Automatic annotation (TrEMBL):
Alphabetical list of PANTHER family matching this protein: FLAGELLAR MOTOR SWITCH PROTEIN FLIM (PTHR30034), YOP PROTEINS TRANSLOCATION PROTEIN Q (PTHR30034:SF6)
Family: Belongs to the FliN/MopA/SpaO family.
Domain Flagellar motor switch protein FliN-like C-terminal: 4-74
Organism: Rhizomicrobium electricum
Entry protein name: Flagellar motor switch protein FliN-like C-terminal domain-containing protein
InterPro entries in the record: FliN-like_C (IPR001543), FliN_T3SS_HrcQb (IPR001172), SpoA-like_sf (IPR036429)
Top-rank lineage group of the source organism: Bacteria
Amino acid sequence: MLNNLQNVKVEISVVLGRSVIPMHQLLRMGRGAVIELDASQDDPVLILANDKPVARGEIIIQGDRIGVSVLELLKGYN
């Protein structure tokens, strides 16, 4: 059974924040445009597995690499 699970792929996403902007503004954006989010760099992030929330975490920066440290599993996933 465990052998079968090792071949299952899961898409992991991390939500840093959200923003709502008018479509015309989005269409005018080019390379280097900045979209302001409703969160600060110290706020917890939401970790999604296949678009389903599974945990909360925090951003970790080590040199030129960015990662996420899991702080809490959400109800139903622990």
